[in-house]
Design goal:
By secondary structure, the chain is an alpha+beta fold. The chain has three helices and seven strands. β1 and β2 form a beta hairpin.
Length: 185
């Protein structure tokens, strides 16, 4: 009886090992991120986005792959409240190190809104050049002057890269509408 029991036990053990070893592994093997390939994909997506909307000729492209368009000068009357204590009427391009007050709206290329402060009572502010915001925003803001508004189209590497950020999937190109409300030099 003991011998029969041992044979059955080892038979069941062998079958269990065979059964579990033959099952497919559901583990996802991560793919290697190819940055050079992603640059080409992003540029193709951005060009297609602009072309489908008839905007390709109205945007400029920087060597980094950022697309931008300055739409218009914004009159002072659009401000909900004063955005700084210093009234600045200069028209020089924004430079690194100055204090910039701005409003913005961030969207994916499929028009999904992921962030905005257009409807808030006060504008945000930051100092370009200190790398406190995503690279494309830091670069793009230097294309604006005080009281201008326009658009930035960022390839993924200048936005959130190969990371998920809230509603933003990895490797997403993004679009920002920006309104500069004041600059303190």
């Amino acid at each position: 009886m003991n011998r029969t029991f041992l044979h059955c036990f080892f038979l069941l053990l062998s079958l269990s090992v065979l059964f579990f070893s033959c099952q497919t592994n559901n583990t996802v093997i991560p793919t290697v991120f190819d940055a050079a390939k992603q640059v080409k994909i992003d540029d193709s997506l951005l060009v297609d986005y602009l072309t489908r909307r008839g905007l390709k000729d109205s945007f400029s492209k920087t060597p980094s792959g950022l697309y931008y368009r300055i739409s218009k000068r914004v009159p002072d009357s659009l401000s909900v409240a004063p955005d700084s204590m210093i009234l600045n009427t200069d028209t020089a391009l924004i430079t690194n190190g100055v204090k910039v007050f701005f409003r913005y709206e961030g969207r994916l290329l499929n028009d999904t809104l992921f962030d905005e402060n257009i409807t808030k009572s006060l504008a945000l502010n930051f100092y370009p050049g200190f790398k406190t915001l995503i690279a494309g925003f830091e670069e793009g803001i230097l294309k604006f002057r005080n009281r201008e508004e326009g658009y930035l189209l960022l390839p993924s590497r200048l936005a959130y890269g190969n990371n998920v950020a809230g509603k933003i999937p990895r490797n997403s190109c993004v679009r920002f509408f920006i309104r500069i409300t004041n600059v303190e030099r």
